[in-house]
Amino acid sequence: MSFVAEFNRLPHADLLARARSASRLDVETSLTRLRPGLIDFAHLISPAAAACLESMGRAAHALTQQRFGRVIRLFAPLYLSNECINRCRYCGFSRNHPIRRVTLSIAEVTAEARALRAQGFRNLLLVAGEHPRLVSTRYLERCVAAVHAEVPGISLEIGPLKAEAYQPLVQAGAEGLVVYQETYDRGVYAEVHGPGPKRDFEWRLETPERAYAAGFRRLGIGALLGLADWRSEAIALAAHAVYLLRHCWQASLTVSVPRLRPCAGAFQPPAVMGDRDLVQLVCALRIFLPDVGLVLSTREPARLRDGLIPLGITLISAGSHTEPGGYTGAGHNALRGTEPGCGVMLGAPDCLWTGAERQATPQFQVADNRSPAQVSQRLRQLGYEPVWKDWDTALTGAPCSPSDTSTSPP
Questions:
Q1: Which pLDDT belongs to residue 331?
Q2: How far apart are CA 390 and CA 398, in angstroms?
Q3: Angle formed by the axes of helices 207-214 and 163-172, to 10°?
Q4: Looking at residue 191, which CATH number applies to its domain?
Q5: Confidence grade of residue 77 (pLDDT, cut at 50, 70, 90)
Q6: Residue 83 within a domain
Q7: Banded model confidence at residue 264, pLDDT cuts 50, 70, 90
Q8: Mean pLDDT across 51-59
């Protein structure tokens, strides 16, 4: 039995009704629970809980300090390709958009990894659009092997695969898989996903379980906030996390809270989520899931990210580029032209684009443009220790390189 079956039985409507109608007393009672349940979580994301945000913040901060200390892990996304055959209305990589598309060569991927290593990163997230021909399993396997020769920690954010297709990627060195359901609302999911493999809601929902079966030891989930009512999404996301903690207990779990950002196509979020709502959600997730890592990306502006860190965030990206070749300029060299409405480069000459126009199109605009060094410095100012990798070679018996420090960039 997969999470799909449990999701179909989830009393979602009742929980959402509680989230919308909870009283302040309900919230205060739920805050006293040693082991809060989904009903308590619903209370903590209610409008009434907004008046208790200070108390929630103190509780979330205390739990984070207790479980994770004053440590923040850093990672960077490395985009391999913006080629995609899906038609997702909210995504800058949608096949519908006449954007400049690139799939990096293995040499270019290696150069990107080395550039990120030079900035201090030992934990990378390899990201690619879903294009089975150009972004094949064999291509991904070669990318993982090449990057693994440069950095020890590799996670993937790619189109869902069968368990047996994931196994070569694990063997090549990938240890984590991140997959956002995007939205847990079936109706909205069907509305924003056009023809393409991503249209299968249940296939995507089962992805973390297939990844676990394939041997990934880190799983990451999330909802793309802005596609549907955030309280509705939060309830389903929390239920999904509980299921994975119970059934995939040998893997560590992270939960991401990404909000929609401007991208090609100028998609307008139908359910805007405010900053205060995001603060409330982070606090509620930490209180409900005290041992789960919470991820915050450069989608959010610097000031908000700094304020959210004490409330439960344990893993952040820094200095991010959301286009292939963004760290070395490889996206400029790889361009071959484009054709409107097609997700594949069709052989137009390089001279079609000149100067800045020749840069590959990003998936979305980042909001925090600080460099990794600036983010690291700010974390220390806030009293936190930036960690660039979460293990030490001493634990494996291998010699530790002087430049392979866990807390400071080289």
A1: 66
A2: 16
A3: 50
A4: 3.20.20.70
A5: very high
A6: yes
A7: low
A8: 97
Residue 26 resides in a domain: no
Read out DSSP for 71-132?
EEEEEEEEEEE------BTT-TT-TTS-----B--HHHHHHHHHHHHHTT--EEEEEE---T
pLDDT bin (cut points 50, 70, 90) of residue 409 is low
Region 146-169: what's the mean pLDDT? 97
Stronger pLDDT, 216 or 272, i.e. the higher one = 216
Strands 153-157 and 176-182: parallel
Q: Is the dihedral of CA 375, 381, 382, 384 positive or negative?
A: positive
CA distance 381 to 70: 12
Residue 215 lies in a domain: yes
State the DSSP string of 285-328: HHHH-TTSEEEE-TTS-HHHHHHHGGGT--EEE-S---STTTTT
pLDDT at 396: 44
Asked if 404 and 393 touch (Cβ cutoff 8 Å), the reply is yes
Tell me how far apart the alpha carbons of residues 76 and 116 are, in angstroms, rounded to a whole number. 8
Nearest alpha carbon to residue 175 among 227, 214, 229, 140 = 214
pTM for the model: 0.90
Q: At what angle do helices 207-214 and 230-247 cross, to 10 degrees?
A: 30
Comparing 104 with 363, which gets the higher pLDDT? 104
* Neighbour tally for 133: CB within 10 Å: 9
Q: What is the C-alpha to C-alpha distance for residues 130 and 361, in angstroms, rounded to an integer?
A: 16
Count: domains in the chain:
1
Q: Is residue 30 part of a domain?
A: no
User: Where in the sequence is the domain holding 65, given as residue range(s)?
Assistant: 59-392
